[in-house]
């Protein structure tokens, strides 16, 4: 008796060894955990299942992989924030607003809030 089933796995690329994040004059390795935690903290006021936080993080990282595919291995921190806002807005505008409030320490630029609301 032989097993005829095919199994697949979902492998994630570890961007920390590939992508560098530039914040002003500082350059550091990309951190999956930092993005995951920032989305998780932003979702505290929204009933968001833990697996969804991981899926949203994966969606942001998929967009980052598209950038890396163009031989870009250094990215500005604000570009990661913009991509994250785009992904979160598509999922839940309230979550996107909570994220923006977090990264701008409760003083977000109104143009960003307007873009989220109007999308």
Helix content: 40-55%
Strand content: 5-15%
Profile the largest sheet: 3 strands, mixed
State Rg. 16 Å
Helix and strand succession? EEHHEHHH
Sheet/helix structural class: mainly alpha
Question: Please, how many helices?
Answer: 5
Shape: globular
Overall pLDDT metric: 91
Count of DSSP strands: 3
Strand order of the largest sheet: 2-1-3
Distance linking N and C termini: 56 Å
Name the poorly predicted regions. Answer: none
Whole-number total of structural domains: 1
Can you walk me through this structure?
With 119 residues, the chain is mainly alpha-helical. The chain has one domain (15-118). Helices cover 55% and strands 9% of the residues. It contains 5 helices and 3 strands, in the order ββααβααα. It has helices at residues 32-42, 50-68, 77-91, 93-103, 110-118; strands at 20-23, 26-29, 74-76. A 3-stranded mixed sheet has the order 2-1-3. α3 (77-91) runs antiparallel to α4 and α4 packs antiparallel against α5 (110-118). The longest helix is centred in the middle third of the chain and has 19 residues, at 50-68.
